[in-house]
Amino acid sequence: MSSDLLIRGAAVWTGGESAQVQDLVVREDRIVSITNPGAAPTQTDAEVIDGTGCTLIPGLIDAHVHLTTPSEAHQPRSNADFRANAEPAEKALHGYRNAIKALGAGVTTLRVIGHRNSAEAELRDLIERGSYIGPRLKVAPWWVTATGGHGDMFIMKGVTRQPYDTADGPYECRKLVRMQAAQGADFIKVMASGGLMSHGDKPEWPNYTVEELGAIVDEAHSLGLPVAAHAHSREGIRRSLFAGVDSIEHGTYLDDELREVMVEQGTYLVPTLLISAEVRDKPPGSVVSPEAQRAMGDILDHQIEQVAKAHQAGVKIAFGTDSSGNVCEFGRHARELALYVQAGMTPSQALRTSSVYSAELLGVSESIGAVEEGKAADLLLVEGDPLSDISVLTRTGAIRRVVIRGVDVTAFSRLHSEVLMP
After folding, report:
1. Which of 95, 180, 212, 312 is 20–30 Å from 172 (CA)?
2. What is the rounded average pLDDT for all residues in the chain?
3. Do 296 and 330 fall within a single domain?
4. How far is CA 16 from CA 4, 124, 174, 378, in A?
5. What range(s) does the Amidohydrolase-related domain occupy (predicted)?
6. Domain count within the chain
């Protein structure tokens, strides 16, 4: 049996508005005790981590990322060019680098909005088997999009479409869901509206009919797969909710009626504010077209207002950043939480989006998403008190330890972040 891991004297956050100084013991991959300081029973050869002055929280769960995107910040490359022209092996290697960047930033689980021919499901399985160190992954192998829809608009002109790059009509939609299930999908991603950055697209456009969305949801749910709907427009959101999707990604043009429906149905909102903030703050034209950059910057204040209204209405909000290559670099995830606080959440409420609610959305709340005895030891030791100042999570050097599956991977993630990842 491996030795225990004892984290001594940290303020342990268990989901409330405050944290209590305690000792926590990890054995194998589980939290086995949380006790008053000095009372924890451990093996004599336990590894001891001094948590004085630190807060212990669950590892962050980012419910919306695009993993196999460019990972070299010093060599900007458009996501569209990378998606169209990079070889599958190159995509996979960039994806692993991005995963380690996320892990170093305290993100221990990623819900991956997939790119086909990128080996994301295979990477997930290697990590689960212990062959690779990395965050837990939940993967959609590809999106479901209509001809002329948001996903189709991301495919560069002149690039030959592959079978089922698009799906039109209920029959094709059902077949694509089945194909993705056969490829190892953990969930299904559907483009239910236009977007902000795809060429020639408009966010207010709906993309699929209720009949098509209903077929996607029915087929996915029959296979035990939840459905995430990219939906900015009111009509796209309305149709998605009518069809019974499990989450609305972005939700830019929600209104009071739609928020009420989300509360009634228990539908999650994954706001992805970070990508708008990151694009707005980059040098003009450095990663996206000037038009797309203006659109993203102009919409951010509205998106923050929408999150505030959704939170006040009781909509369940799950943490998601839309981290994606050079557009929204991996490793900056915690800024999304600061934006939630800007929208009116308390720091503890913001942290629940990245733990309790994201774990529920991913269907893994029985094992992760909380610091509790019996849960898997996916933990983040942070210098300072994020419950009084959420921005400590974004400060360089504030993340003292990252533990996943009971293993302290801090040294590994720091090596990759500081040496190998300019």
Report:
1. 95
2. 91
3. yes
4. 27, 32, 42, 18
5. 55-406
6. 2
